[in-house]
Amino acid sequence: ALNEDRFKLVFHPVIDPAGAQLHQEAAIRLQAQRDGDWLAASDFIAIAARLNLTGPVDLNVIRHALEPLQSQAGELAVNLSIETISDWGFRNKLAQLLSQYPQLCRRLWLEVPEYGAFRELEAFRDFCRTFKELGCRIGIEHFGHHFREFQKLTDLGLDYLKIDASFVRGINQKKNNQRFLKGLCGLAHSIGIIVIAVAVQNEAEQKTLIRLGLDGVTGPGVK
Predict the structure, then answer these.
(1) How far apart are CA 198 and CA 103, in angstroms?
(2) pLDDT reading at 223 higher than 90
């Protein structure tokens, strides 16, 4: 698949409380066999990590993301593997590639999973510095399970957090999660970080999240 570039991106809108688009999430799909089905990232990223191939996969993701950024308006968010972030060689290849497109970098949002950001904190710290200098926005996805370690993130210059779906699901009926997300939003906003909810299923969840102070929502229930 890597040799034949059997990759594509699918896009999901992220909107603000007024309904305007913040950015689109770009999710990677891979065709393992020619003319076969397209696999979601969850079907192959763990295998790529075991084979030390997340770097080449992420380079492909960035290359594919640059195409719509060049041809269309708006901003785009791309998820990167923590294995790529902690691999200096591939991380530097990403930086070299993006340095050729300074105008596009200002419209590119780069995010890594929470578990990886805390596991490889120093590598992530350097990643933040390098790619923010290029003009990208930097965020953490699947956030919430390491909330007690939030202080470790305050000097990274993060732009956004995407809340893990487990805290979002059924939020309109879960008072404890409502208190948690309201407090998280207050803390994040105090240092200039916006907070986005993912996997929003319906209008009731969306209205509750906006009332709690979330800056953006995405998911199958978001219109």
Answers:
(1) 27
(2) no
Rounded to the nearest angstrom, the gap between the alpha carbon of residue 150 and the centroid of all alpha carbons in its chain is 18
User: For 141-191, how does the pLDDT look when each residue is reduced to its tens digit (9 = 90+)?
Assistant: 999 999 999 999 999 999 999 999 999 999 999 999 999 999 999 999 999
**DSSP character at residue 53:** -
What DSSP state is assigned to residue 119? H
pLDDT in tens, 62-101: 999 999 999 999 999 999 999 999 999 999 999 999 999 9
Instruction: Indicate the pTM of the whole model.
Output: 0.95
Q: Give SS3 for 36.
A: coil
Backbone dihedral angles phi then psi of residue 111, each to the nearest 5 degrees? -135, 150
Contact 58, 41 (CB under 8 A): no
As separate numbers, helices (DSSP H) first and strands (DSSP E) second, the chain gives: 10, 9
What are phi and psi for residue 153, nearest 5 degrees? Answer: -100, -10
